[in-house]
Design a protein that fits this description.
heterodimer; A: alpha/beta; N-terminal domain of TfIIb; Rossmann fold; 6-stranded mixed β-sheet; 6-stranded mixed β-barrel; globular; B: alpha+beta; Alpha-Beta Plaits; 3-stranded mixed β-sheet; 7 helices; 23% strand
């Protein structure tokens, strides 16, 4: 089972059908050719066209990741200074005994809350991820952890506020029904957003849809497809949207019957837009001043979107990873309501998450969790929009390093002594990396489970080597976008002494004397996950066939439309909000009375946006988009990928000329938090006043503190927005030519 | 018969999946050798900007200059399908030969193995895949279905006979077997 043998001997090899579990918006069927325990080449999905789910460059390079010469193959103990990356090989017994000793010491001396678990999505399988380990740590008495999804928290908070549901997407085929597609900060050619999404977008354009790209960058999707590019200043999208609402209201273009029937609080939003609330009418001229987008462009866009029948405004999580990011999402959803495009084929509800409820990652099964005793007591946080309530027991994710440095004295719920990092490279991937490095140096003890010597791993006391995707059986799902389910099939034996995170938890449980921690075999667990899941249980009747094929596709009779039933039959299908309607005004937010999260969507300025006096010193706004040739910082080491898209800083020719910078010149990009060196890509595809550096390149500070690796987070803030977004796209910088050695 | 590539430039996002799939299938090293290159073209001024990509595999020219110039007849144009292949046993290496094939190629296609006097290698149209009924790996891998291949005549019937586009100049000298749906320039240049 689990493989299709194309020959009888090992030399002829076998073909293993599988997929990836990276923190990627796609899940693509892969066929790995394996000879003598080595993947020798990769082919993609072989379903008949047009159904093929085609992988991107990253999984095409998977074998260079799995078999990379830098893979960590044995447990390691640090022997040099923290951050220097000097380690020695030790046995699993020694590694786990040391961990048991340190965990026990911290528990007995400081209490369980001083044990910190730093978790993320570097591996998104159902069984072999961090689920087992956190269960074990709960059984050990508990642990501290963090709150807030780095990628999407602004969008998640916004959709829960307004719709009460994260299933805000349409299946991608529905783009074919759109007459107008507004890519508002959305770039599926780059961040994938579900396998084949870009292909569907191209088909929609070929079908006659007009495409408008609104982004400070003429992004990869926009530059291929857009009929119009509207460059907008970072952090000011909401102002533009509010002014579009102003145009619609003044010209009576809004779908008032829709607003009356399905929403609450439009009148309050209208008061804000028309200036009745604060004496400032949010006119296109007002927004032009803020956003840099000409007044007439805003007016035309408002009219065009209001007239499109249907039209879809595709916002995204990216621009929401900013100081007031959730407001951009809330304003976008409000425009979707004003144009009556919600619940409609070819329309869209906005919300930036694009999730559909068939095959969605959030609905995957996993190891049954155990309540964390360290979080017991206190008010329930279930369903709350009040971030402060959530942060009573947890640190915000983008504040975890500040919490490590300051502890209870800094207002955090615990003094962290020991931290264990699983499936992440947070030093590199959270804001303010130089400070993060100092925080890691301050820990009493640090453990990391890793495949590579990442910048984070260099600070660990113990490194546990983890198996790659090719070395285990598991289940995965596409992030937001089925409709299909995927299986991971083991292609090769674990390299060196690698173990999965789950196997590590089981081995540690034995050392800790936790009995019956793992009552099932791998195949029993995976079979149960399929059978007991409310979606896959009824769908997948033949588990062996599913595992062998690596995928189960779901035939949809028609495209999924978010909130279709809420719109078609509102009596029987209220929205999952307290009012049962789309909440343009949120009573919950009004009650929580937090000026950072007003009850209606608003444009708000923020520290380190274009209005900050700091622009006198650091005049350029920094963007940190997804990289194309790695998954955040995963696969960074793979040269096949590195060479495809050189790591550069995008800068407009005007800004470059003013600084004496030519294309491909080495430049310093810097602010008060850090400095990095990188080649400039001088391009008209970015608006002047803005610099873009793709996230995920590895931190590599030299003796002067200059990051030679071009890790953009040496420049970003370790802060969060009112709704909990990690503020990774609101930062000011300056750029200058790097004339080293002159 | 002449086998040809087709590119729909209005679908190419420049992602380089074709390039990586080619490296994987042909087991090519990073940095030193590339059997399908992706060129970037940009025109205009923000916000009126035109950007596109051009794929450069080997175009398996109808009248390949490389074949004519090779001093050891290491380059052969196959009669049955028009594919230009290299007999590496006969290639005498880049230094010894002086890169004659590369110098005459209008598209800088010939590549050389890393190391001293590396022998020439290039795209062979995935001949071994074609022989077992498979599609060239670049064509099969393209996430946006921007590529196709087949007998030139069939491609012309399907897609027309345009052979010019931004980033590509048709060489009368070598007659590349390449059909393109061009992405029209929409901005003032």
């Amino acid at each position: 089972m689990n493989s299709e043998t194309t020959g009888t001997s090992e030399e002829q090899g076998k073909v293993v059908r599988t997929t990836s579990a990276f923190d990627c918006g796609g899940r693509c069927p892969l066929r790995l050719k394996v000879i003598n325990g080595e993947i020798v080449n990769i082919e993609g999905d072989d379903a008949p066209e047009p159904e093929q789910l085609r992988a991107c460059l990253r999984c095409r390079a998977l074998r260079k990741y799995v078999h990379h010469p830098d893979r960590l193959l044995y447990p390691l103990r640090r022997v040099g200074e923290k951050g220097k990356g000097e380690f020695e090989r030790i046995s699993w017994d020694e590694a786990l005994d040391t961990i048991v000793e340190k965990l026990t010491h911290v528990k007995e001396t400081y209490g369980n809350e001083s044990i910190f678990m730093a978790l993320s999505g570097g591996y998104l399988g159902a069984l072999h991820g961090a689920g087992g380990l956190v269960k074990l740590m709960s059984l050990f008495g508990g642990y501290s952890t963090h709150y807030g999804n780095v990628s999407s928290e602004g969008a998640v908070w916004a959709v829960l506020t307004q719709y009460g549901s994260v299933m805000v997407g349409h299946s991608r085929e529905d783009l074919m029904n759109s007459k107008l597609i507004i890519l508002w900060g959305w770039d599926p050619a780059r961040m994938i957003s579900g396998t084949n999404t870009m292909y569907h977008l191209i088909k929609a354009k070929e079908n006659g849809a007009k495409v408008i790209c609104i982004d400070p960058r003429f992004n990869d999707s926009g530059s291929l497809l857009a009929d119009q590019w509207i460059p907008v200043r970072p952090g000011t999208d909401a102002a533009m949207m509010v002014a579009m609402a102003n145009v619609m209201i003044k010209e009576n273009l809004q779908d008032q019957p829709f607003l009356d029937k399905y929403t609450v609080g439009f009148d309050k939003f209208k008061d804000y837009v028309m200036g009745d609330e604060d004496g400032v009418e949010k006119t296109p001229a007002w927004a032009a001043e803020i956003s840099g987008v000409p007044e007439q462009v805003i007016i035309d866009l408002a009219r065009e979107y209001a007239a499109a029948d249907p039209g879809t405004l595709m916002d995204c999580q990216g621009p929401a990873r900013s100081a007031t990011g959730e407001q951009y999402i809330r304003c976008a959803m409000t425009l979707c309501a004003m144009t009556g495009n919600i619940g409609k084929a070819g329309g869209g509800a906005g919300g930036g998450l694009m999730g559909i409820p068939v095959g969605h990652m959030f609905r995957s099964s996993g190891i049954p969790p155990v309540k964390n005793p360290a979080e017991a007591g206190g008010k329930s946080v279930r369903g709350t929009l009040d971030l402060n309530l959530r942060l009573q027991k947890r640190m915000h994710t983008n504040k975890m390093f500040d919490a490590i440095l300051k502890g209870k004295a800094g207002g955090y719920p615990a003094d962290i002594k020991l931290a264990w990092f699983v499936a992440n490279n947070y030093l590199n991937q959270l804001g303010n990396t130089n400070k993060n490095a100092e925080a890691l140096k301050s820990l009493d003890f640090m453990i990391i489970s890793e495949l590579f010597m990442t910048p984070t791993a260099r600070y660990a006391d113990i490194i546990l080597p983890v198996t790659s995707i090719a070395e285990k059986n598991d289940l995965t799902r596409p992030w937001p976008s089925g409709p299909y389910y995927t299986a991971i099939n083991k292609a090769i034996e674990p390299l060196g002494e690698c173990k999965s995170d789950w196997e590590i938890a089981c081995a540690l449980a034995e050392k800790l004397g936790v009995e019956d921690f793992n009552p099932y075999t791998e195949s029993e667990w995976l079979k149960m996950f399929v059978e007991l899941n409310p979606e896959t249980g009824p769908q997948i009747k033949d588990n062996d066939k599913f595992r062998e094929e690596g995928i189960h596709r779901v035939d949809l009779p028609e495209p999924i439309i978010a909130f279709k039933k809420e719109i078609e039959d509102p009596e029987n299908n209220p929205f999952s909000t307290p009012s049962g309607k789309i909440e343009i005004f949120s009573q919950r937010l009004s009650d929580s009375d937090n000026p950072l999260t007003p009850p209606i969507p608003k444009y708000m300025s923020a520290k380190e946006d274009h209005t900050d006096p700091l622009t006198k010193t650091y005049p350029l706004q920094l963007l940190t988009p997804h990289p194309r040739n790695r998954i955040h910082s995963e696969m960074y080491k793979v040269d096949w990928l590195k060479e495809t898209h050189p790591h550069t800083a995008w800068i407009n020719p005007k800004d470059a000329a003013a600084r004496g910078i030519k294309n491909n010149d080495e430049v310093y990009v810097f602010n008060g938090r850090g400095k990095l060196i990188i080649p400039a890509f001088v391009t008209e595809k970015i608006v002047n006043g803005v610099v873009a550096i793709f996230e995920g390149a590895w931190y590599d500070p030299d003796e002067n503190g200059v990051c030679r690796g071009g890790c953009v987070n040496v420049l970003t803030l370790d802060e969060h927005s009112g709704g909990g977004a990690s503020v990774l796209k609101t930062a000011l910088v300056e750029v200058e030519p790097a004339r080293e050695g002159e | 018969m002449q086998t040809a590539f087709y590119l729909d430039q209005t679908r190419c996002t420049g992602c380089a999946t074709c390039q990586v799939a080619c490296k994987d299938w042909n087991d090519l090293p990073a940095w030193t050798e590339n059997w399908i290159r992706i060129d970037y073209i940009e025109k205009g001024v923000c916000p009126e900007v035109y950007a596109t990509y051009m794929l450069v595999p080997c175009y398996h020219c109808i009248d390949p200059a490389c074949v004519k110039v090779c001093p050891t007849d290491a380059l052969i144009k196959l009669e049955e399908n028009g594919i230009v292949v290299v007999n590496r046993e006969l290639c005498i290496g880049r230094e010894e030969c002086g890169e004659k094939c590369l110098k005459v190629c209008p598209y800088d296609v010939p590549q050389f193995e890393a190391g001293e006097n590396g022998k020439m290698r290039k795209c062979d149209f995935c001949l071994s895949r074609q022989q077992v009924g498979k599609v060239p790996i670049c064509v099969e891998s393209c996430p946006t279905r921007a590529m196709d291949f087949g007998p030139m005549e069939e491609l012309e019937k399907k897609y027309g006979s345009n052979q010019t586009a931004e980033g590509f100049e048709y060489s009368e000298r070598t007659k590349p077997a390449f059909i393109i749906k061009p992405k029209p320039v929409t901005v003032k240049v």
